[in-house]
Amino acid sequence: MLDMRHLGAERIIDRLPGSRELSMTFAGVDPIYDPVPVRPGAHYHMGGVETGNDGETELTGLYAAGEVACVSVHGANRLGGNSLMETITFGRRAGRAAAEWALANTTVDLPESAKADAERELKALLDVSSGERPWQIRNDLGTSMLENFGVFRREEQMTRQVEIIAEVRERYERGVVVEDKGDVFNSDLTQAIELGNMIDLAACMLQAGVARKESRGAHARPYDYPDRDDENFMKHSISRWAGDGPELSWKEVRYTKFDPMERKY
Amino acid sequence: MRKVAYYKGCLASLSAKELDSATQALAPKVGLELIELESVTCCGAGDIHEAEPDYYLHLNARILSYAAAEGVDTLLTVCNVCTLNLRQANFMLLGDTELRARVNENLVAVGVPAYEKDVDVRHLLWEIAEGEGYELLKVAAHKGLKGLKIAPFYGCQILRPSKIQGFEDPDRPWSLERIIEACGGEPVDYPAKIKCCGFPIIQAREETALGELIQPIEQAYEAGADAIVTPCPLCHLSLDAWQSKLKKTTGRDFKMPILHLSQLVGVAAGLAESELKFKRHVVSVKPVLEKLEA
Amino acid sequence: MTMQVGLKVWRFNSRTGERELQEFEIAAPEEATLLDCLDIVKDQHDGTLAYRKSCRMMICGSCGMRMDGAAVLACKMRMYDIAQAGHVPVISAMGNLPIVKDLVVDMDPFWEKFNSVNPYLQPGYEEPPDGKENLITQERMNVIHKEALCINCGCCVSECNAMEADPLFTGPQALAKAMRFVGDPRDGQKLARLEKLNGEHGIWECTRCYFCTERCPKGVDPRDAIAKLGAESMKEGIDRDMGAKHAKWFVTSARTTGWLRETELVPKTQGVVAAIKQTRFALDLALKGKVPPPFPPHVAKDVKESRRLYDLVRDQGRDGYAGIVQGERALGRLSHGHGVGDQTLEEIYDRPGAYHRPFIADEEADA
User: Fold this and answer.
1) B42 touches C: beta carbon within 8 Å
2) B276: closest CA of chain C, how far (Å)
C-alpha cells in the first residue's frame, strides 16, 4: 500500500492529478482518503537502440528516438523525467537529423533480394493455417519473464528463463496462426511479428542480465551480488544479433560534467 | 403547497410568454407555490459567461441571493440554459469560501443582500419527474394525452455537463418519457433527443445551426411523433421558429408542433387555451389539439 | 475471479465496404476494462478485429471508441457493473472521423486541426533579465491546468455536434489545446493566436452542446476552454465576430435593462443590413408575438444594482479567462452525476431508447 494521505488534498489535487486519477479509476481508491494498493509493473523501457546525440544508429539512415532509443544519459535507473529528455531533447535532435538525412539522400540502394526475403517471410507468416495463436506464446513469455526476470533476480531463475525462452522460440518458429489475412490495419499480423522481436529482445536481456554480476539501478541481485561494482561493471551492455542468438559486448561509460555516484535513498 | 422562488428568465418574460403563463397555471396543480423574483436579471445565457465571466458570476450570485432572501430552499427554473448558468455559479460559490466572500462583498457594496443561506437550483422538469411532484402530476393529468405520440427533446444543457446538472444519466435520460407516460401519451424514441438544437449559434453561424436543428425534427417526424416537447424555451424557439428555414435547405416542410413542457402537462391537466397560449407558436399546434378532441 | 462479458462489435472494412454487427461472449477477469475484453476477443475469438491501443493506462490516447454510442477510452472503462447488469454493450468506432477498419478511425483530419492551432510554445515572451531559468508559479500554470491534461484521444471530437453539422469546425480538442498555449505565460504569440481562433471556423462556431466536456476522459472540459478563449479575446478587444457581438449584447442588456433586449439581438449580432435581409422571417415571428417591441423596454426592478455591479467588478482584474479560472477549483470537485430518482435502474434501462443506437458511417443500425 502506498499512503499519500500526509500530503493533503490540496497538494494531491494540484501536483499529483495523474496518479490520483489512476488510483481512482483502476483501484477505486482516492489517495486523499485511502492508501493505494500498488504492485510492480512495466512502466518504461530503460535501455534501447544505441544512438548518438542526433539519434543516429549503427545502420546508416536509421534513427531512433523516445522509448525505443538509448542515448545513454540516464544510466540504469528510471528517474522521473527520463522520458522527457528522450523525447523533447533527443527526440527533437533525432527528428531534425533524420529529416536532414532523408532530404540529402533520396534513395537507398536496397538489394532486391532483401525485399524478396521480407515479402517471403510475411507470406510464410500469413500462410500458416494450423498451430498456436501468438497470444498463448506471448502470455507465457510475459508471465515467465515477470516471474524469473522481474524486480529481484536470482542466478538460477535467470538460467531457467534462458531455457524457457528457447522453448518459447521453438513454439514460435513452428509457426503461429495469423487470422487476419487482410491488408488494412492488420494488427494481428504486426502483433505476430512483434512477438518474434520480443523473444529476441528477451534473450538479449537475459544474456546481459546473467553476465552483469552486480546490482545497479533496476538490475537488482540481492541474493548473490547485492552491491554495485564499478570496478568491473561501470560499462554499458551492448547486444547484437549474430546469426541465431545474441552476442554481448561492453562499451565504456563516457562521463563529462558529473561523476557517476550511487543513488542512496 | 411548497413555496419555491421562481426565476422565469428572459424568454418566458418576452418572446415565450406562453411558457410563463402555462407554468404559473400548472404550478399549484403539482404542489408548487411560485414566488416570482422581481429584482433579478438575465442569467447571461452562457454569453456573459464567455464575454465577462466575472460579471456573469456576480449577476447569478445576485439572483441566488434574492432567491435565498425569500426564505425558500429551491430556486425553480423553466429553461435549460438558466438552469446550467445558475447551478454553475452556485457550485462555484458553494465550493469556494474565499470566492463567495469576495462576491458577497461586492453584492453588499451595490445594495444587494449577501448570498448567505444556500439555495438549490432546480428545473421544473425535475420537480415533476419524481417524488411528490410526480405523484401530483399523475393525479392532475386526468384529461390525458390519449395516446398521442410525443417526442421528448431534452436539448443539451439540462443534461450536460452532468457534474453540474446530474439529475439523470445524460445518455439515458428518463424524466421526459416518464412525464409523457404519466400524462397518458406515448413517448417516441430517437437518437437526437439529447443533441443540440443549434440555438446558441443560430445567429452567428446559421448554416451550422440548421445542420443541427434538422436532426431532431426529421427524426421525430420519421418516428411518427405528433409533437415534440422540450423543457427549454431556447430549444423551443429554435425548433418552432426556425423550423420553417429547413424548407429552404432541405425542401421539406415538416410542420412539427413544438410544446413547452408546461404546455404538454397543461394540456393533460385540462388548462385553458388562455393559459397555454398556443396561438403564439409559429408552427400550428392545432393538429395535435384536434387529434385529442377526436 | 472471472466474469462473463457480452459485447456487440460493429465490424467495418472501408476497402470492401463490408459491415456487420458481431456478438462475442467472453470470460474475463473481474477487473477487466473494455480494452482488456477486446484483447481477449482478438486473441482468443477473432484475430481479425482491429482497434488501436498502446499504454493501457489513459495516457496515450489511442483507444478512443464508442460504447453504446458514447465515446470512451476503452482502457478506462471498467466492465464489471455492465456485465453484472447483464447488459451487452454495442462497441463502434468514434464519430466525426472516417472509419478505416472496425474500431479504427482515420485520425488525419484530427491532426490537421490540431496542427492548425500551432500546438507548440512560440518564442517572444519576456525572458528574465539575468538569463536564468524562467520559473513559472503554480498559480500561473493553474490557468491551463485542465487543458494541459489533454491526451489527444479524440473522444470530444467524436461527439461534437457543431462538427457534425460543419466538418470544418476547428473543434473541441484543437481549441482546448489552443487555450493551453494562449494561457501559458511562456508563450509569446497570444494575440496572434486569438486573432486566428476568432476566424470563421473558430471558437464562435461552438454550439455549447457540452458533449466534449461530458465525454472527455481526462477532465479537460473543452467547452470551458473555448469560453476562456472567448473571454480572453473580448478582453483583448478582438470582438468583430458575430458570436462575440452576440455575447456582448447580453452584457449590454444585463447592464441596461436587466433582461435580454431580444428584438435588438439580431441587428446587434449580424449588423443592420444582414438583419434587414431577415425581415420576412422576422415578420412571421412578429405576427406570433415572438418579436417583443423594444419600446418601452422591459426593465428589471432594481436594475441599477446590476449596472453598478458591472462597474465594480470591471476594476477587480478578473476579466478574461481569469473570471472562469477562479471557479475551476470549486467545479473541479464535482463528479459526473447519474441520478435515477425514485425509480429502479431496471425501470430506466428497460425503457425503449435507454441505450443510444450507435451508427456506423451514415447508416442507422437496428442493434
Assistant:
1) yes
2) 14
